[in-house]
Design brief:
By secondary structure, the protein is mainly β. The protein contains ten helices and 49 strands. Strands 23-24-25-26-27-28-29-33 form an eight-stranded parallel β-barrel, surrounded by five helices. A six-stranded antiparallel beta sheet has the order 3-2-6-11-8-9, with no helix packed on it. The longest helix has 16 residues, at about 1-15. It is globular, with a radius of gyration of 28 Å. Residues about 1-20 have low confidence and may be disordered. Bound molecules: beta-D-galactopyranose. The site of beta-D-galactopyranose has 13 residues, from loops.
Length: about 800
């Protein structure tokens, strides 16, 4: 009895006073930043008091200014078929991301713990991490998450200095990579016996759809000594009694198999996540717990993914076609510095379109983004590289590939394998080696390495030269052959491959600028206009790419095409094709949403086809065409209904229906478009009202949409994506500003300059109007509307209360919106 009481006392002591909990802290505030490049900066006693105080995630380049001289590349872009070098100005965003940046952080570390780690979720780029003046780790690829054991560098009960040197080389990227500690840094403190970072995995081995059971494989990697110790791994899950278990630990690697019952399978439609709590406990001889060494709770999902000749891609046994988009990692106005709310904002917008997947082109994703994909229900192709040995730009990843690919792939997989959202890994995008001798061997080696690290997911790669990739055997190696564009080669590739299926790993690359319409309306390849914009009639593309419909014909008519990833969900900084040589132009035109996250017309086109739940009725263009009176001004309707009638000022322009065509590509005619769009090509413009009435298959009227010719700009309207945000100094609201006339009609050509003021418990974070040719800074609260709209990013402070945002523009009434924080 006394012994028991004593043990209990010890147990309570240890648990309450001997720190049974690990500590995981995001090192967010009070980093010091400088561009000074002096090696003594890494020293502890270096005077850093004059350095800029910044918060991490941080992108040192996003404030600009934009300048064509930054990373001006005089190159021939081989991927685009160029053979002669020419000046490419905005290729990597025309922002000052090149050079050296130092970060320093003073952290007091008390002596409570035995082990200390730093987890960098990526650092752009070539990070060298010094602890108290000594180099602790070095990495190269800016997208790779890495963990450093800093235990031996730490001085306990003292101030410690973490110093990070980063360096970005010119001509090292085909897009804007961002600069600095653009992803979070975490300090992890544990006791000697602890869970290894990324060491816990729950894998779905198999599922049974009939009785809702699943076989799981649990893998746990531990740090510390376990021989001759009485240490147990205790696991509990409030959702599965079957999982509540305890095992004696004999060595550092544990594998257990378990059947679970009453499972809800994870899917985009039902993204169910479960919690698993793991504890490392030590018992005395009587079986009483004397120490809890470590505790960790992970989230996992249960789902089954498969690709097969018979069913193509299946999730939980159900065949489905992936409706995905490719995403670059930048977040427009925030640059590369990630923010959970901003990532969430993007994903939520994509979901409203019926999109169910993203491809993290062309690099290792952030943990926060993957967590959001898990919880929101978005499948992921997690990619790794844009180049291997053969360079696509002079100082790109090829400089490091040979020495680093294994480590980079390893970290990609280990850091991410627990995410149910990830359905496949990609070992590369348009890798030139696809057409070179031994390219297939390298692909096989890399794929095998990924399988070794995670046998539960298939591996893919995006191929843009399928003939070459077939002749070298590269395409044959891949678990999932991924085609980038080349819709006319799908049939041929399918017939030559053993797989019995193909993925559109990258599709469309249609070009448009939000709210810009060009006349006459005709299909145009690589077309350039004087204003540096592309037409939003969605008829423009590059010589290698196509319009959405060419992909859809394949997706819809060919069973063996397992889905697509559209290039791209959002416009991104850099790669301003077709204006690579035009200044000013510094961001892309490929997005379904613009750089500000505002939907282009194409959003409604994809939504009409992908989102089967919600009604879509969208008319284009706008109807403010002073000077076009009497001229042909085609009108398109993007809708999920098959039939519609259009009226101009009450006069019918005809009732038309979508036409089925088996046509595979445009062949200089636009007939294929009529399968998915309703087009009135001969409408004559007169100001007033455009109205469309839509009908379903039975001829029943299902809804209508109106567009009016607006009057002069009169006042600004502000709409926030969320009216309540968290008062944590991180959460963000995105506010769309619209210019409207006195009756509230949207003014689609307004370009007024607005000033933004933020009052109360929030701060201004960024502004963006989606205009690829704008040189206005994202970080100054002053910007012109682009075609009547722009977006403003506001961040909460740590104090709960209210934020008031006011947008002012000379000659019109202010806009105002309130957001609450708690
Ligand atoms: C692809 C490439 C992408 C992007 C795109 C533009 O070939 O994989 O990174 O450059 O073209 O259309």
């Amino acid at each position: 009895m006394w012994l028991k009481l004593f043990s209990f006392f010890i147990f309570v002591m240890y648990n309450s006073f001997v720190f049974s909990q690990r500590q995981e802290i995001y090192l967010k505030n009070n980093w010091l930043f400088s561009h000074e490049d002096n090696i003594i900066n890494s020293y502890v006693d270096f005077d850093d008091t004059s350095w800029e105080v910044v918060c991490v995630p941080h992108d040192w380049a996003i404030a600009g200014p934009f300048d064509k001289e930054f990373d001006k590349q005089v190159v021939a872009i081989e991927q685009n078929g160029e053979t002669i070098a020419s000046e490419k100005t905005g290729r990597s965003g025309a922002l000052p991301w090149i050079g050296v940046g130092w970060y320093r952080k003073h952290v007091y570390i008390d002596g409570k713990f035995d082990r200390y780690f730093l987890n960098f979720d990526g650092a752009m780029s070539s990070p060298k991490v010094y602890i108290n003046g000594k180099i602790a780790e070095e990495w190269k690829y800016g997208y790779t998450p890495f963990v450093i054991d800093i235990t031996s560098f730490v001085i306990k009960n003292s101030d410690n200095v973490i110093a990070v040197r980063l360096e970005n080389l010119p001509e090292s990227s085909r897009w804007y990579p961002g600069a600095g500690l653009y992803r979070p840094v975490k300090l992890i403190s544990t006791f000697s016996n602890s869970f290894k970072e990324w060491g816990i995995n729950v894998e779905t081995e198999s599922i049974n759809n009939n009785d809702y059971t699943a076989d799981l494989k649990l893998e746990v990697d531990l740090l510390g000594e376990y021989k001759n110790r009485n240490i147990y791994l205790n696991i509990t899950s409030s959702d599965f009694l079957d999982l509540n278990k305890e095992f004696i630990v004999k060595d550092n690697h544990i594998i257990k198999y378990n059947k679970v019952h009453n499972v809800e399978f994870w899917s985009p439609e039902n993204p169910v996540l479960y919690d698993l709590e793991l504890k490392l406990i030590e018992k005395d001889e009587s079986g009483n717990i004397i120490i809890t060494h470590d505790t960790k709770t992970v989230k996992f999902g249960i789902r089954n993914i498969k690709v097969s000749e018979e069913h193509g891609f299946t999730l939980n046994g159900n065949p489905r076609k992936i409706k995905g988009v490719c995403l670059h990692h930048d977040l427009g106005m925030l640059g590369a510095a990630i923010n959970r709310a901003a990532l969430c904002h993007q994903l939520v917008l994509l979901k409203t379109m019926g999109c169910d997947a993203i491809r993290t082109s062309h690099n290792i994703p952030s943990q926060w983004q993957m967590e959001l994909c898990d919880s929101l229900g978005i499948m992921v192709m997690a990619e790794s590289f844009d180049m291997w040995i053969y360079p696509k730009c002079k100082n790109g990843y090829s400089l490091y590939f040979k020495d680093w690919w294994k480590r980079d792939l390893e970290n990609l997989v280990l850091a991410n394998r627990l995410h149910p959202s990830i359905i496949m890994w990609s070992i590369g995008n348009e890798i030139p080696e696809q057409g070179m001798a031994n390219g297939n061997e390298l692909a096989r080696k890399m794929q095998n390495w990924v399988h070794y690290l995670d046998k539960s997911r298939p591996v893919t790669a995006g191929m843009d030269r399928i003939d070459n990739a077939l002749s070298t055997g590269y395409a044959q190696v891949l678990d999932i052959p991924g085609m980038n564009y080349r819709t006319n080669k799908y049939e041929m590739a399918y017939s030559k491959l053993r797989h019995g299926f193909l993925l559109g790993s990258e599709t469309a690359s249609t070009l448009s600028s939000r709210g810009v319409y060009k006349f006459p309306v005709e299909l145009r390849k690589n077309y350039q206009y004087d204003d540096g914009q592309c037409s939003s009639y969605d008829v423009e593309y590059c010589w290698w790419s196509n319009l959405p419909e060419e992909d859809w014909v394949l997706q819809d008519d060919k069973e063996w095409v397992i889905g697509e990833f559209v290039w791209t969900g959002f416009d991104y900084l850099g790669e301003p094709t077709p204006y690579d040589e035009y200044w000013p132009s510094r961001s892309s035109y490929f997005g379904i949403f613009d750089l500000a996250g505002l939907p282009k017309d194409r959003y409604y086109l994809y939504r009409s086809h992908w989102n089967k739940q919600d009604q879509t009725i969208h008319l284009l263009p706008h109807w403010n065409w002073e000077g076009r009176e009497g001229l042909i001004t085609p009108v398109y309707c993007y809708t999920n209904y098959p039939t519609a009638e259009l009226f101009v000022n009450g006069k019918s322009q005809g009732k038309i229906s979508k036409k089925h065509t088996d046509e595979m590509n445009f062949n200089n005619n636009t007939e294929l478009l009529d399968r998915y769009r309703l087009r009135w090509n001969n409408v004559v413009y007169e100001p007033g009202e455009l109205k469309v009435i839509v009908y379903d298959e039975m001829g029943i009227q299902r809804g209508e949409e109106h567009v009016f010719t607006s009057g002069k700009p009169h006042h600004i309207e502000l709409k926030a994506d969320r009216s309540v945000i968290t008062a944590d100094g991180e959460d963000m609201a995105f506010i769309t500003a619209y210019m409207v006339d006195k009756d509230g009609n949207f003014c689609p050509t307004a370009d007024n300059l607005i000033d933004v003021s933020v009052y109360g418990n929030g701060v201004f974070k960024g502004i963006c109007n989606g205009n690829p040719t704008s040189l206005e800074s994202f970080t100054v609260p002053r910007m012109h509307f682009f075609n009547g709209m722009l977006s403003i990013g506001i961040m909460s402070t740590n104090d709960a209360g209210e934020i008031t945002v006011v947008a002012h523009s000379t000659g019109v009434k202010d806009g105002l919106v309130n957001i609450y924080t708690k």
